Amino acid sequence: MPQFTPPVRDTRFVLDRVIGLDRYTNLPHFQAATPDVVDAVLEEGGKFVAEVLFPINHSGDQQGCTRHPDGSVTTPDGFKEAYAQFVESGWCTLSAPPEFGGQGMPHIVATAFQEYMISANMAFAMYSGLAHGAISALLVKGSEAQKAKYVPKMVSGEWGGTMNLTEPQCGTDLGLIKTKAEPNADGSYSITGTKIFISSGEHDLTSNIIHLVLAKTPGAPDSTKGISLFVVPKFLVNDDGSLGERNAVTCGSIEHKMGIHGNSTCVMNYDGAKGWLVGEEMKGLAAMFIMMNAARLGVGLQGLGIAEVAMQNAVQYAGDRRQGRALTGPQEPNEKADTLFVHPDVRRMLMEAKAQIEGLRALCLWGALQVDMEHAAPTEEERQLAGDLIGLLTPVIKGVGTDIGYKVATDCQQVYGGHGYIAEWGMEQYVRDARIAMIYEGTNGVQAMDLVGRKLALNGGRAVQAFFRVVGEEIAAAKGNEKLAGFAEALEKALGHLQGATMWLAQNGFKNPNEVGAGAYPYMQLTGLVALGLMWLRMVKAASEALAQGAEDVAFLEAKLVTARFYAERFLPDASGLRRKIEAGSESVMALDPEMFRAA
Amino acid sequence: MPQFTPPVRDTRFVLDRVIGLDRYTNLPHFQAATPDVVDAVLEEGGKFVAEVLFPINHSGDQQGCTRHPDGSVTTPDGFKEAYAQFVESGWCTLSAPPEFGGQGMPHIVATAFQEYMISANMAFAMYSGLAHGAISALLVKGSEAQKAKYVPKMVSGEWGGTMNLTEPQCGTDLGLIKTKAEPNADGSYSITGTKIFISSGEHDLTSNIIHLVLAKTPGAPDSTKGISLFVVPKFLVNDDGSLGERNAVTCGSIEHKMGIHGNSTCVMNYDGAKGWLVGEEMKGLAAMFIMMNAARLGVGLQGLGIAEVAMQNAVQYAGDRRQGRALTGPQEPNEKADTLFVHPDVRRMLMEAKAQIEGLRALCLWGALQVDMEHAAPTEEERQLAGDLIGLLTPVIKGVGTDIGYKVATDCQQVYGGHGYIAEWGMEQYVRDARIAMIYEGTNGVQAMDLVGRKLALNGGRAVQAFFRVVGEEIAAAKGNEKLAGFAEALEKALGHLQGATMWLAQNGFKNPNEVGAGAYPYMQLTGLVALGLMWLRMVKAASEALAQGAEDVAFLEAKLVTARFYAERFLPDASGLRRKIEAGSESVMALDPEMFRAA
């Protein structure tokens, strides 16, 4: 059976030494995040997820959720009790605003906790994760009355929340939505239609579930411009906050999925369910994007969380399992065989995991900091820069982060050999769970298109120029420092390829937008390579400074330097190939008649 | 529900135009493989697997195998009937020697059929696939009496066969085997021990199962040098061929696996089971390698077979599913949306699938031809060259082929978006089934080590030099042909990187074998890149010649040229990065103390 220990030491390294939380006490909500409080969140929060959520992860996968004939859904054994503890102990409310009962912690601190929760039990984490997305949308677009009515109990965890976008005929292309919203005399709407793939759509964890639903009002255009957002509670909520009648929204079935079996992914049937418009009519897509951008960062974090727990187990197994001898001669001659750790190719997989996980952790936490800054930094210039950077890198964190999650989970399963394929060892669940993160909240291909088709060009390319400036300046500064120069030069080459590819896309995309589309995926990968490279440059700098200052955790800090070197040697060389793929353009990608894909 | 059509057109292209089966009629067993016969195998064999085996693939996955309290195992509904048809219609005996009841067809023809069978139902194909491995070992190492007793009924499919290597404490490192073989007075042995992960270990398809088992005789050294191979029938076989008493070998449990649920993967308990030595005592490993090398080629073919069926379905879905509009403007304005085919990033995934699948098909069939040549070519020089090439490339076909299978299955699942994650669409099964092929018959990391640690150096590097000579000569010839020169030049660069990396390994591996180990995986990938590149060069040549000769299937042949160009633009650029990773050496790979992989 697998194990999990929250990687507090590494989180602290990023928060304390790389980012330096104490530099941000000028942001109002960072004042609550004193070192003691952050310690408590990481230590106690980590302990909670490891002791309460992790033990029901594998059993939850094996058992799955059950839909009963009356449409009710029960979660796997132990989920209900664990959820009650989760709510009671306050882990649900970390970053929500105090005026709605939240603890008002910085997003970066909540993100650190959220990573641990995903590692411990991704399917479980989705129940509250989806509610957080719904809360965000209500906070930004909801009326004061709606906020007062729904948000406090969603923040507390008493009620759940969902996002209802997908229908059988439409996923990415929300213009094809068929769900109807007919206005009632009392100002409410009657919602009718079928939504699919609704995570946490129905379950037994909360007394109510607040659905946010995309639908079309009568006469609305048959495109994304005709979509409105509605709030549709499972139980209507009386003015005194008590629960009223059951709304006409039911779970029609639970999807049989490859993974995340502990989360109930539902077909939701709306049969004239009562709903209320959130924000303006036909502005639903913009509201949905608020949820979606937050959700995309959360999904990128799923890549990290799964990769981390998979690696921890592969490391344990590599130390326990004895098989063969080191190429350089027996390392433990008194044993019948050496451990897997002696084998360079096992090391390669673990080092690749480590280099990507630690880079991605720094990127996710830095990304969360940009979300904090975007909203609360003291100057407009800082807020704009943060917003530009996180807007640009949200699809990268989601797309590259989840690709890493799947690849690392697969490689860590590989370390187990045949045992990795057997359910009881738990590794194959990580692969199956990690797989969904590449698909939902916009497939990774959609992320790539968001990056090259939308984010690059926004405001005349302001965001990507800002990103290049940040990376370029840090490289330039690092080249003057002998401890950093080697890494900085490797990163500079990769940055050069990214800048070259960006120029190529800008020059060729106008003539033929397919050039942009054909290069989108390798461009996203190349951006991710540079973004993780920037994080590694910062980690090298932080570790070198700490070592120079006589920090105690010498072995840990020196391992950072080795891992950075590995990243430079084993990942950054991909940059030139990625650039060449982008600059190859779209001709051979688009040339074939669809019929020619049929070899038969 | 998924679909499958045997890719006969593409197989024929490779057999007829790229390889040219008619050039090999000087090999005795190729004389039976007349064009009519090959046509019949592809058409009728393809029809059989599509109509009989494919319909029970998804249901077999969902139902799995069942072990009963008495230790018997039933396969999923329909498997028993389909197996009976499989045996009756003669598809079981294609390449087995006529003296044992086989049809004596060339291995290349049987391989073409085997690919279709895997696409249709990989779990089912494993039942006869494992038996073929056991047959090979008996034919080479068994006594005449053993061959006469066991092989004919294994060839006919009346009896099954298995390979029993793995034990709980050992997989790759067979020196750790604990299973004991105690000699009996009658010349037989009593086999006692536990074997795990035994594919097709117990089932209801055949009246007997012939287990080949690795075990140690008393006093044998505690290493791979002490291993002997035994034949242990489930039912003892009387001298008249009838079945005798039940042997003391039982299925202790069925493993709960990530995929290939239709195949019974068993824990096998040997409790003093009666067995007979195959070949010489303590030479069991060599005998096992006969099975293993054949099996590794078969596993590489699993990568191809799964990739092919996954792609066929993704292509179908991409043509059916309408979502969004082409970047260049609506392609079908009368529809609400264009098909997925208009989106460059969907095309990218399908082109990557196509380029790898068609390259891999050519490589697998060419590899099978080398097996034929190795045994039957008229001159010693030809036999040696064929043996060298297939020896070198067996780990590449297995390792790179199965990596491709998993990657392509994953990408084709990705084309489906959320539907790809849902069991009923069938795509997630392909990913789960494809996954095992990277693990069994030696993990892909073990393949990489076999390539760099063993195959490169064998006979003073004769095989790799032969491979470089073949690739180099074909490039040189192609550069003089304007139709081929572009591709040849791209391949020449990749070959240069492979040669450079080979030189680097040769120069550095003596000093420190970890340099070889750390570079093994990227070296295997680079070799695969060049090997598939060679196949694409040949396909470009074959297609160009056919077009020049006025062949009728113009669109198909022109699609080959486009796909080759895509391969040159989108895969070959990886070569320089792979070389840089190899030449980075082992220092950063091996530097960390295992403790430093624990971030917690």
Structure report:
2 copies of one chain form a homodimer. By secondary structure, chain A is an alpha+beta fold. In chain A, strands 3, 4, 5, 6, 7, 10 and 11 form a 7-stranded mixed sheet that branches. A two-stranded antiparallel ribbon of chain A has the order 1-2. Among the domains of chain A are: 8-141, Butyryl-Coa Dehydrogenase, subunit A, domain 1 (Orthogonal Bundle); 160-283, Butyryl-CoA Dehydrogenase, subunit A, domain 2, CATH 2.40.110; 444-590. The first copy, chain A, is built from 17 helices and 11 strands. Helix content of chain A is 57%, strand content 11%. In chain A, a hairpin with a 5-residue loop joins β8 (235-237) and β9 (243-246). The relative contact order of chain A is 0.09. The mean pLDDT of chain A is 96. Chains A and B meet through α1, α7, α8, α9 and α10 of A and α1, α7, α8, α9 and α10 of B.
How do you describe this structure in short?
Two copies of one chain form a homodimer. By secondary structure, chain A is of the alpha+beta class. In chain A, 57% of the residues lie in helices and 11% in strands.
